Amino acid sequence: MTNKQAMQKIRQMAKYHNKYLLKECERLLNSGGISVSDAENNFIVPKIVMHVALLNEANQYKPLSTNMRKEVENLKHF
C-alpha cells in the first residue's frame, strides 16, 4: 500500500465521521448520564460529551490483533 492509497481509504472512512459524531453526541446528551441543566453555559459539557463520543468512535476502529496494537502504541509517540 502507498501513502496515497492509505489517504484514499482514510478519506472514505472520514466521510462518516462527522455524521456519527453528531448522532453519538446527541445520544449521549439524551442518555441521562450527564446533567445539562445544572451546568453553566460554557464548553465544559460539550467537551465532556464530545470526548466520550470520540472515544466511542475510536473504539470502532481499534485493531484487534496484537501486531496491530503494537503499531498503534508506536504511532502514538509521533
Topology:
Layout lengths: L2 H12 L2 H14 L13 H17 L5 H10 L3
Helix pairs in contact: 2-3
Task: Give a brief description.
The protein is an all-alpha fold and 78 residues long. It is built from four helices and no strands.
Provide structural commentary.
It contains four helices and no strands. α2 crosses α3. The protein has one domain (3-75). The protein starts with a helix and ends with a helix. It is mainly alpha-helical and 78 residues long.
Keywords for this entry:
elongated; 78 residues; mainly alpha; 4 helices; 0% strand
Oligomeric nature of the chains? single chain
How many domains? The number is 1
User: Number of helical runs?
Assistant: 4
Q: What is the residue-averaged pLDDT?
A: 89
Number of strands: 0
SSE pattern: HHHH
